[in-house]
């Protein structure tokens, strides 16, 4: 309905004017930096092509989805996920195309586990015969599968799972049984309402050789199990399944609970590439390389590390554009009748956003490096060489912990830096935040898995001490030996003065090495209880992972041939900002480790502020380089054209369904909707 | 529908067993500590009485509300709010009773602004005649009012508001007009769908004396304006109003936008206790004490400080109870077949939760102190003495910033410490988190308002330097003078060695004083630009506010006569944990300020870990002392009886409406709900 607000415009200078000036004042090449970030892998081409197709489909409109209930939102998510698969067939999308479409639509797909853990587990842990049977059914989506490992009572401690798979030698079947409530499967995505099959991880119980009435557990093993009827889609007899209900995020995902009551599955259900049960004798064959079974976990962690950069890039894109446009107060020390300042010009806004702009780049280079390490290690393993496995496992654990923490906290920091409108639905950060908050917990809790880094580094330090007189076998070993030798000579290494970029890297490495030595000393020499050291070990993992981020960023810029001129200059400042800001926040630890000179530490606040002042004019171009499309941002505050206020008003005035209802404000009347008689009792049925 | 899961129980030891042991192992007196926390103000008695009444009303059931859409949830919120007012009449509740009921129901009431800012503004800024007219209408809820100050383009900078109130001397009316889109009122609670009146803050434009065709702005002023028809509840002609749409939280609040098109209001609309316009001459009278106009802001900030303790107490109640019950892994260094450990026994879980348990107590004592300072200052002001106003304003600003940050971040830290189930809807933290995340922004952005603390302290330091030879006029002045004298004599004060609790307090005060001197030096002596100092000033405010929290906690325990024996002993450890944990996180700043000896700083990690080990056995009793009822917690993880897994399963299996729908998983069929033909097109109408 037209009204007098249709012709109103925001006060000047408006968003488009401001962003045009921001983009014009920087000589950083947006396209050059974009090509550097997304070189030959076709990411940007694919993004443009898929986006064009998606935007023609009304079902993918995000305009009002925040208003839907859980049930409605799930229906929408499922309808979209099915349509995406039909479009995959229709447009002959490859897997990368399909993943791009999911990324842009930005719903967690109810088919996600089918496409990831279910098919991966079959591929990696099923025998050839099993694969031949199941893969065609999976790839055609004739069956839909999920991955049911975590239980109500056990997540991290997989060995503690309670669900039992007991071999019945008389019928040659396994009997799945949940002896307790805590044995219920829990959190298993895609299974609550959608899947009809699942990989079910259960404790394998076999009769004890010689005394067949006694059963012995052989630990958790995967089984492929049909759990719902293929026609009625109801759970089979002896199976109880459902969705666990609303969560922080993942609104379109049907995370499941599932219990079994003496439910029989055939011998062929057990995935038997690595371990197996002989059907005639009931004899168990165990895997040759137990570590291989956990390969997919490392793969998932490496992917999470690589993904974090795009999450944070999205948040800083919104925050930088909006805080450039948002104006509040004149400069206190200058003309009080002058124009109000962009809030991004306040150092207190810069200190929250610009280090995160830098962090997105740091995550980018380390994400790439992590992918390369993963690929190289897989190749080693395929050729029978397992030596690099421990390094990759440690690296992926420490980085998963640190990078997801940086991205998750970064989203919220950006949101708060945007003041009131950051709290509104137009920020585009609500769903991103709600979904991403799962990442510090899933695939290895961020605090728990840092033990794996520490254990690896303590082992490395022990080896270095024992072989101190032989040359370093790798970079870490060489660094550790140098540290030990310096320590034996001087009692302590000399603090570093940060006079150049290489020094910054060295300082991070020295601190991580010193903390590794401390941990070695406590655990190996002083035989301290492991659990009593956990906080210290967590700090060690963080220091090591920060050191990787800084060193990788430095190496990427040092060896890069694609950037030049002002773009390269700005990127070096971005590197310094990331490193020095990180160091400032951990100042006392660097000092205690003798890893940096006191004068350099005292200078950090002003160096950081100086770097921010240098980077500030390029802030909009820096975030533009990530080329995150408006459709994905779904943000009034962060849109490319800067029409912040027009978009906020449009969402409120034209798109908000609450405004179509006239409410009755009189407390003495039970009626809620004016003139209809609808009252509280109508809602009671939903409570 | 009964099934085999009805008889299943969690594995042993279950929640009730664990909590019974936790409660039994501590000699801390829960009732003694409760009486100490809530002494004679009747809080606990009122809580029990109101809770008993509320729990009988089905409309207040929280069991399924997470599943509702925004529109449904708003209807529910309005129905509840109306019922609460009817119950107030029926049970003859006083205002404290009503507020308790709201607190327990835990919806942000759509009438909140009517009950707070609307009535407060009338009370404080209306003339006696205006009050006589409006107060009966307000108190009977015959009219419902809101407070419309913030605009789309301006929040913090109130002087930059764009809405105009232009005096028309011919008709003796004001003309409200929104010249731009950014002049739209925005965020104004209770106004989007419910209120029919509002305090509207607009730039007062009056004809220039002598040249009446020219208008001069006299800054923002409040007007009381009817905005909706009393019968149809539609906006009046010339007014556009609506709800701004979904946000992070505040789902039951109708935050508004509102614009005016040359909308005429009578002369009597201007609230004229402090400033007024003479209707015949158009002459302006300005307020005698402009600061008085902002009194209600300080009041609101003081309340936010006081409220923070209950928010954090709620989060730690859930976190402590759940992490005591949750078990994962055996102790790596002991019997691997022994029972799994409570996750609260891991130092890496303790370090996230126990300092927050301590923080809740720190917030409590400072919240009480802030209330006392507010009351004393109001009394001073009523008697015409304005000297304490600046101190109170500074204190409330700094504490609002720090305390809301501690509480908001604390909720999320607790959530992550609870692993997977922390991400679930059974945590009870989702709505708390979503609602509370507004607090770092509202009533003065947490980063912006720290300038007010810094400006106050720089002024105090300047005064101290100028009057160095006269005795201190108050505690701060005396401390500043001592610091200046020591500085002049020795060049620097001696670092403190933290050998007793008083030393800890002194160390915090010394650091805040040193930072205040730095800021004075930069701003007053070196004439640095204010904005260039903002980050430093923010750190100063944080240091000052932390010092207040530590000193107030210390003083409360030192002077307390109500606690004794083990309860008092544990509380002293809780004090030390709060202070030393805070210090460790700011270690380098304390070191740089020479506020603590290096050996003491190096000892902090082990002291903190030792304190946590001492407090750990009392953790459940400590949180029990807050007496937060299960109805308010609404948490499977945090319930008093410890039936965590039974409750999670009940919510999933029996209460989740998604499980009543059977979905069609076949991607080649458009149908979404099995057997009904319902498909994506049915949802399109809501997009």
From TrEMBL, chains A, B:
Region described as Disordered: spans on this chain: 1-26
Query: Which segments constitute the Acyl-coenzyme A oxidase N-terminal domain?
Result: 30-144
Q: Name one GO molecular function term.
A: FAD binding
- Kindly state which reaction or reactions the protein catalyses: a 2,3-saturated acyl-CoA + O2 = a (2E)-enoyl-CoA + H2O2
Which residues are the active-site ones? 443
**Residue ranges of the Acyl-CoA oxidase C-alpha1 domain?**
294-458
Describe the location of the Acyl-CoA oxidase C-terminal domain by residue ranges.
502-670
Similarity field: Belongs to the acyl-CoA oxidase family.
List the protein's name.
Answer: Acyl-coenzyme A oxidase
Taxonomy, top ranks, is:
Eukaryota, Fungi, Dikarya, Ascomycota, Pezizomycotina
